[in-house]
Amino acid sequence: MSDRKKWARTLTLHAVLILGCVIFSFPFYWLLTTSMKERTEIFVSPPKWVPGIPEAVAASPYATDSVYAEPQMPDDRPLPFAEQDLARVFEMLYEAAAAVRPERMALLANLVDGQRYASHGLFTEAAAGLPENLWEGSVEEVGANLAGRVTADLTDKVLGNVFRGMRIRQAAVLDRTQRVYTPEEPQTLVAGNAASVSDWPDSGAQPTELLAYAFEGGDKAQWQLTMPMPRLEDDFAGIRMPLTGDKSWHVLNIAVDAPSGHYESAKGYPLADDLTVEWTWMLPEADAGFRKEKDYTDLVRTGDTAGPGDQLVVTMTLARQSLFAATMSKFGRAYSEALRYIDFWRYLGNTVTIVALSIIGTLLSCSLVAYGFARLEFPGRDVLFAVLLATMMLPAQVTMVPQFLIFRYLGWYNTLIPLWAPSFLGSAFFIFMLRQFMKSIPKDLEDAAKIDGCGYLGIYWRIMLPLIKPALAAVAIFTFMGAWNNFMGPLIFLNDERLYPLSLGIYQFRMEHSAEYSMMMAASTLMMLPVLTVFFFAQRYFIQGVTLTGVKG
Hints:
The chain has helices spanning 3-34, 39-42, 86-100, 102-109, 114-127, 139-147, 152-162, 323-341, 344-375, 381-390, 396-409, 417-420, 428-439, 443-451, 456-467, 469-484, 488-493, 502-512, 517-547; strands spanning 59-60, 62-63, 163-164, 166-168, 172-175, 180-181, 188-191, 195-199, 209-214, 220-228, 236-244, 251-258, 261-265, 269-270, 276-282, 297-303, 311-319. It is of the alpha+beta class and 553 residues long. The model is unreliable at 549-553 (pLDDT under 50).
């Protein structure tokens, strides 16, 4: 074979291997990148394969082109007129939107590129579904047809995609019994450093205020909210604030001066969404098991300095995030949210306990039984081994009910014991695998140990186990993966959420947050990473244990 053919063959082989790696790693790439995406990046067509980077926001409110970068014709049809004539169509659309939402459109017009992005959006939304016959005629006629489709709902949709700004409604107070108190008198909001406050137009029955800021000479903006202190049936425990973010990823902290003392938020909350969310800051000790999930931020008492007896003063401080910090916050947000909603560390501790005991029990029992079948001579050995192998033909569903009745009779129901105790009784497949491996070890080593006075257990411990390390490693890896991913066992034997392993905890999380795809992918990634890590570092032993035959010595 010539050198050219040899190189071509080598390159082809490596190209096929690389292509295989790319194909088989794609699901993990999809899982990882989806966990770093926002909701608007997931439900798009064509799909976004790379998570986007947040905008660098130095002032708010602001206009964004993240949705309407360019005006889009439906079904990729060409424009029925020259592109320079779009300016007139945009003008007509903007005038129609200003007629139905005058105050909000005026607010948008004051922002950089606000009118241009809104025009792009109005054209894209109004053009969708427009009958073909209405595209015929002059620019004025087409513009009038499009402007006739501009309604209040369509304008609100475009404004929601283009306008970004912080908004706040009437806050409420929580007591230690989880009762919510909304003061009858309105709250007062005063702007501090690098900030301003104005009324949000068309806010409806609930007055809404627009919070503006500009990081020109500093990295912090501040507002102070004062509200009447309601008469609580129990002590002050927290505050709930309906707040709309601006997707700037800057971090918001609060400090509360109540009659009972001074409180501060334990950590900042990034402005990651543009949806109105009821943010809750609460004392952890006031939870007392009321909430199944921790959907609040801890409020910590930092001093005895009390506020006015009849008022509650909330100081909101917005800290500027660099573009790098904002990007890291965006990519890690789903993970922090998943860890906040899932009792991850408790579930991880339960899983590690089950996995560790299962590995110990499997290695000990299977290696000991395999040694007896491989090296000891006793009557009926082959018959017993055949019976052992025959148990592999029994489906797990056949033994599920008898096993459950036995464990319940022993008082092990709703404990972790049924999830690891069976491993100390051995596994037919692993016993067979280790027996075949031990049979390949020369009998001379065993005879030499007997001459030196070593008994059967000594031979097992000092001779056999060191020589079958690759096989033991393979058994440990198989056992680790089986115990780590075991779902049916915990589902049958566990009823207490505090005993859940990760597999059952993430299943429950999926049932309650099925629409939060990024959080689901983050939780799945957290569960999968230990398995990948173990397999990556132990793959040499895994391959050896499965493929190695012949003499070990």
